[in-house]
Amino acid sequence: MMNVGIGTPSQKFNVLLSTGSADFFVPAFNITTNKPKFFPKKSSTFSSPNPQKYLNFPEIRGEVQGIVGIDTIEFAGLKQPKLEFSMADLIDNQTLADPYDGIMGLGFAKLSKAESKNPVLSAIDNNLLAQKMFTLYLKGGYTTNSKNMQGGQATFGGYDTKNCGQRLGSVKFIGGGLRYQFQIDSVSIQGNVASGGTQAISDSSSGDIIGNRAVIDKFTQQVGARWSDSDGAYIIHCRATPSLTLKLGGVDYTLTKDFLIYRIASNKCGLAVGGMDRTKEGFDWVLGSPFMRKFCHTFDIKNNQLTFSQVKNL
Question: Where is the Peptidase A1 domain (predicted)?
């Protein structure tokens, strides 16, 4: 999550960074919540687009709707005037219960329902960053003997030398500049190849590895995981040893139990995977936070590629 300010004087929000969406919303002044809310009348720099836009955001989990505003937005010491954002006056209860105030999508403008650039890509386009890139690091893996780790760091305009070590490889973005989408060479489960070439997207706001339904079904069967409707997750023995390997750009990236198994209760663990069908855009894998916990992600906008590096001190 990241602190951002909107308006003059600045109204502060803690937002989730999402590489799987492209819109930016915070709670509107007229929504019922204890979270911070944006009050347009308290900002001397606020304005509305003409014509006004009222949108829903299908890329964001749950139900979120809101009206678009224009104001000064500040993050990481950068202040940019006249950027669009959304004031959400309808947010589902699950999203309201999440620890963040809003979501800042980091995806390309083509994906935006508001048809606008998010503050990070706007800063890149306006040459406000040292380099046209940003790096995301998520703290550690899931350790089944302790609390699930939270937190991380976003580095805008460069590489995170504090938390990220050796660069392992890169993949080019494909799909016409809509998503952070790339090719998967192969997928292996428990050391055996289960799928040939396919495509994936990166989504920092997803808590799971979502994959081809047939491959995930085979994977969960092999590792002894079973679906639980009441938990909304695959339940697995806490001492199980699942292994999932993705070959990307000719390099193998392997996730093991510390990045796939998380604790639900003292004697219950979940497997951080889910199944999906191939989308019309051609991908059937979504690499969420478990993958980012193992490998730092550098989104190199100038060179149209995603670089993976080893997280330090795992």
Answer: 1-309
Among 76, 102, 125, give the residue marking a domain's end: 125
The stretch 213-230 carries a mean pLDDT of 97
Residue 93: give its domain's CATH number.
2.40.70.10
Residue closest to 18 by CA, chosen among 103, 98, 91: 103
Question: Do 112 and 13 share a structural domain?
Answer: yes
205 and 116, same structural domain? no
Q: Based on the structure, what is the number of domains in the chain?
A: 2
Is this model's pTM higher than 0.85 or not?
A: yes
Domain that includes residue 14, residue range: 2-125
**Residue range 77-121, pLDDT digits in tens:** 999 999 999 999 999 888 888 899 999 999 999 999 888 999 999
Q: Which of 125, 146, 170 is the last residue of a domain?
A: 125
Residues 81 and 197 in one domain: no
Tell whether the model's pLDDT for residue 153 goes beyond 90. yes
Give the 3-state secondary structure of the chain: CEEEEECCCCEEEEEEEECCCCCEEEEECCCCCCCCCECHHHCCCCECCCCCCEEECCCCCCCEEEEEEEEEEEECCEEEEEEEEEEEEEECHHHHHCCCCEEEECCCHHHCCCCCCCHHHHHHHCCCCCCCEEEEEECCCCCCCCCCCCCEEEEECCCCCCCEEEEEEEEECECCCCCCEEEECEEEECCEEEECCEEEEECCCCCCEEEEHHHHHHHHHHHCCEEECCCCEEEECCCCCCCEEEEECCEEEEECHHHHEEEEECCEEEECEEEECCCCCCCCEEECHHHHHHEEEEEECCCCEEEEEEECCC
